[in-house]
Amino acid sequence: MKTMKFLPPAAIIFAAILWSFDGFLRQNLAGVPSFLIILLEHIIGAILFFPLLIRGWGEIKSIRERTWISVAWISIVGGILGTFFYTKALSYIGYIDLSVVVLLQKFQPLFAIALAALVLREPLTRRFLACATGALVGGYFVTFGAIPMAQWDDKTLIAALFALLAAFSWGSSTVLGKHALKNLSFLTVTSLRLWVTAIVAFIVFMSLPNQPALLSLTSQQWFIIVVIVLSTGSVALFIYYYGLKQVPATHATIYELFWPLSAVIIDWVIRGKVLSPPQMAGGVLILLSTLLLPRNRANK
Questions:
Q1: Which has the minimum average pLDDT: 77-91, 165-179, 234-248, 286-300?
Q2: Which of 9, 140, 209, 285 is the most exposed place for a label (fewest CB within 10 A)?
Q3: CA dist 27 to 31, 230, 250, Å?
């Protein structure tokens, strides 16, 4: 029984470590339109988890309106927009380090709590405002280091903006994903999220004036997309929802810190990319702010 208690946190940590490899895989798809990557990885993932959709059909038929709203949000905002913004940010790796893009993802809990305040009318405490301020300062130093504002590079700024938009999309999806998991099993949530995302992405793709040709993808690009699905994409999502189902969202935030930490280490080991001292200081500020947030929620 004691071993079972450690499985949900271990699942979130394992998913976070898988996500740290995601950036390296997606960089090899720099020449592929971002939306095409999203469409293909979700169609493949939806097919892979189709048996779970059939298994949970009884649950799906009894879903109420609020749960459908949560499923739609995590599928469209988290599945399509979040992945699109993150993939776009990674396309600017020549102007911004992978470590920077990943560290900026730790703004997710800040966005999640701010969204809860707006939607659920929960008061924002002084500790939260202090954490948010510290994270914003940290985010500035992680992105620009000690470079003065007058020397900001436009493409670095755009990449950071895409990374923050991804953080907002995924942070808000954590809140609504937890809501969906209260009424559905993690098996059903995973399969339903993949299928809704795939269907909406396909409709949007078919309405695009200039549709990227599937036949233009090389065998290596197809291979990387399949690897993403089987590791950092659909499979990691399945593992994460298993953990999130049984772990408080505030605890999950701490376990997810393994994502930026392992990504920074991997970026250093594989590519020899090391953050400058001001960027390291900014990263520490972001991580400390994130660590203090759960305590804020627990005290409240």
A1: 286-300
A2: 209
A3: 9, 17, 31
Query: Domain residues of the chain, as ranges?
Result: 32-299
- Structural tokens at position 102: 């990943």
Which of these, 125, 119, 77, 73, lies nearest to 294 by C-alpha position?
125
Mean pLDDT across the stretch 249-259? 69
Q: Is 39 helix (H, G, I), strand (E, B) or coil?
A: helix
pLDDT digits (tens, 9 = 90+) for 13-58: 899 888 888 878 887 887 788 888 889 999 999 999 999 999 999 9
Residue (of 105, 78, 111) closest to 293 by Cα position: 111
User: Residue 266 in contact with residue 20, Cβ under 8 Å?
Assistant: yes
User: What sign for the dihedral angle of Cα 214, 53, 168, 285?
Assistant: negative
**Rounded to whole angstroms, how far apart are CA atoms 262 and 242?**
21
Three-state SS at 64: coil
Distance CA 272, CA 274 (A): 6
Whole-number Cα distances in Å, 117 to 72, 125, 153, 169, 243: 21, 10, 34, 16, 25
User: Considering only CA atoms, which of 157, 237, 160 is closest in space to residue 196?
Assistant: 237
* Residue of 161, 132, 143 lying closest to 103 (CA atoms): 143
pTM of this structure: 0.78
